[in-house]
Amino acid sequence: MDNVRYTPKRLAQVVDATEREVVTALGKKEAYGPDDLPVLRQKLGRAPEPFPPRRQLFLNFKGGTGKTSLSSSYAYRLAERGYRVLMADLDSQGHATKCLGEEGSSFAHTLLDVLIRKKPVSEVTIPTRMPGLSLVPANLAMSTIDLALMPLAGREFRLKNALREVEGRYDFIVMDAPPSFGLLNLNALMAADDLVIPVLADFLSYDGLRLLFETIQGLEEDLSHQLENIFIVVNAYNQTFKIAREALEALRTHYADYLLGSVVRQCTKFAQASSEGCPIFGYDPDSKGATDIEAMQTEILARIRRAAAPAADAAGA
Questions:
Q1: Are residues 272 and 153 in the same domain?
Q2: Which of 114, 120, 191, 266 could pair covalently with 238 via S-S, beta carbons 3.0-4.6 A apart?
Q3: In this structure, are 33 and 71 located in the same domain?
Q4: Do residues 167 and 236 share a domain?
């Protein structure tokens, strides 16, 4: 993310200010960097809207759904909004780590050390080049984590328990999980408040969805864990394809309670951004991919607020 630059116009959009206010606060520059964001927020008094702490998991047992591009850009955008964010890369391929401009192989410690060797999460966390966004990196050393978890006591709750150490330090913990069914993903589901399921607009996605919902039902019955919110987001959507339109309509019919109204359209900028080690908002914030993730995130946060409102009213009464 070394090459992320902001124009005065873009900075003004991010902090909900005018270009004149940006230039007055930071001085006139052709381009600003991520480090200017917290300075600008402080000078203009633009703190983010308070939000209850969330642990959010991006998961689909089916691969190829673009989950990592969505989750890393989602976490980056939360940090742009001014929230304190921890991105936890749970995939041994380390793609989320790479999308945030880091190389997983250069780090000696990962989530493996946290779950198996009981190393504190804070000791394996690194800062990124976006202020407010921290990262638990991943690399191939994590490929043995499911096997290592198998004989351990309380193996399903290791991640949930480990994250208690950093409670209060982050507004959002965003987890990017591998497309597989195993103990690590079971840990992630047990630790999550919200589940975000990226799917493609094809009928093969139903297989992954069915297995995932069966797993969630098993968690409720066997481990007494209930996710607060589940969101299905259609990714890489191309409305010119008849099969995509039909698949989207089928999702609306069968998963209406979970499906987001916003979709993320097919966008080549995602691949280009990933190759540069940069989330879509840092690479091309005006692209349709960035616009769609912005809409997706806004809808998710709004739904969480609406779902939490009745509980808050009941508690106040």
A1: yes
A2: 266
A3: no
A4: yes
Q: What is the CATH number of the domain that holds 118?
A: 3.40.50.300
Separation in Å, CA 48 to CA 31, 33, 41, 84, 175: 23, 19, 9, 10, 21
Same domain, 97 and 25: no
Cα gap 223→156, rounded to integer Å:
9
Q: Is the pTM of this model over 0.90?
A: yes
Tens digit of each residue's pLDDT (9 = 90 or more) over 36-54:
999 999 999 999 999 999 9
Rama region for 150: left / alpha / beta (φ>0; ψ in -120 to 50; rest): alpha
Q: Do residues 189 and 304 share a domain?
A: yes
The separation between the first and the last C-alpha atoms of the chain, rounded to the nearest angstrom, is: 47
Count up the domains in the chain and report the number: 2
Total residue count of the chain as it appears in this document = 317
Query: How does pLDDT run across 148-202, given as a tens digit for each residue?
Result: 999 999 999 999 999 999 999 999 999 999 998 899 999 999 999 999 999 999 8
